[in-house]
Design a protein that fits this description.
This protein is an alpha+beta fold and about 230 residues long. It has 8 helices and 10 strands. Strands 3-10-5-8 form a 4-stranded antiparallel sheet. A hairpin with a 4-residue loop joins strand 6 and strand 7.
Amino acid sequence: MGLLLGGKKKVFHHFLFSVILLPVLFDHKAGNLIGFKTFAAVQMESLMVKMKNDYDSLMVIPLEEYLELMPYLTFKKYPKNTVLKGASDVESVSRYLFEGLIGLFENREEDTVCRRIYCPNDTVCDFDSYLNRAKNNLSLITYTECMVAEFTQENEVLVIKNLKNFAELGLKINHRITSRDAQWKKLYWLEPVQRYDHLYRICPCLGEVKIKDVCGILNLPERTVSRLRVKK
């Protein structure tokens, strides 16, 4: 959904509504065959309401209109430690995260360092790779079991063409993504104690993150992070 200033086609670069409803859905990476009755009847309605409730804070749109998005999206459940986008891959989808945590990792010559944790309701994508269609040294890996909905670049063009009423909501989602990204970048401007306090505010799932990964995010030694964590 990219920046609106970049042109109409980019309006949905960050756009991640999120659901698909098919009679049978095969999750290729997870290897799970999910039937319509067993999956949709139990979970789909509540997930759709959850997604709508999230976006209602930006702009209220009837549930019926969200249903028109379903053919353009792919709904998947991934186990823990699944590589969604590797450092040798070009990002091809953006994802709305319903459940679970996803980590953004920097792959360096000597090690791999966690740089961000995505929590439920976040849009998850390596946007640098996605927009430039280029490889980099970043990877996205499921930190826990996750439920996501994926939106391809090809389908975003079709959504812009066929579902024009979502352009305004798409812009608001883009603004939210930009705002959240800015809060994460702010971590590097702060003093150590302020960094941890700020991370605690912007990452509601921080308690589930390993100390070594918190160290990577904050760029602080483990002893300092352990001391700050105890105080919380």
